[in-house]
C-alpha cells in the first residue's frame, strides 16, 4: 500500500498565492486601508510568513501592482494576437476589447485605481506604477505600430473606462453618462 506524501508549497508558489489574494484585499480597502494581517488571513497563512515573502506592506503592494501590470500585458498580447487586421487601429481595438474583458474583474481595476492614488504619497508605489506604464506603453507601441497620438488616445480611453466602471456610470441613464460611455464596450 502506497502512502501519499503531502506536497509542500514552494516559497514561490506561496508568493503567487499571496499576490492573488492580496489583489482582493487591496481592491477592497486600498493601500492605506489594508493590513498585512488581512492579507495573511485571506491567504491562509501567518502574518510572519507574509513578512518572510515580502519585507513590508510597501513591498507587498508594489509586487501586487507589478502583478497587475503583468495581467494587463497578457491581456494586450491576447488582444494583439486576436486582431482581425494588422493596422494600428485594428490592433488597438482588439487590445482595448481584451482590456475591457480584463477589467470586468473589478478587483484588478480597483487595485490599479488605488495604486494611482497611493502613488501620489508613496514613492515606491509611484515608481512601480511608472515602471508598469513604461513597459506597457512600449509594448503597445511595438505591438500596434501606431503613432504617439494613437497610443495616447488608447491609454486615455482606458482611463475613461476606469472611471466609467468605478462609478458604475452605465447604471445612470443621463446625458452625461451616455456622453462618457459612447463607443466604450463594457463586460
Q: Explain this structure to me?
A:
With 187 residues, the chain is mainly alpha-helical. Helices cover 75% and strands 0% of the residues. It is globular.
Q: What is the strand and helix layout of this fold?
A:
Elements: H1 11-33, H2 36-43, H3 47-53, H4 57-82, H5 88-102, H6 106-118, H7 123-144, H8 148-166, H9 175-181
Helix pairs in contact: 1-2, 1-4, 1-6, 2-3, 4-5, 4-6, 4-7, 5-8
Which stretches are poorly predicted, pLDDT < 50 over at least 5 residues? Answer: none
Instruction: Measure the end-to-end span.
Output: 51 Å
Task: State the shape.
Answer: globular
The share of residues in extended strands comes to under 5%
Q: What is the ordering of alpha helices and beta strands?
A: HHHHHHHHH
- The tally of strands reads 0
Helical percentage: over 70%
- List the total number of helices: 9
Radius of gyration of CA atoms, rounded to a whole number: 19 Å
Oligomer: single chain
Structure in a nutshell:
Helices cover 75% and strands 0% of the residues. The chain is mostly helical.
Features:
mainly alpha; 9 helices
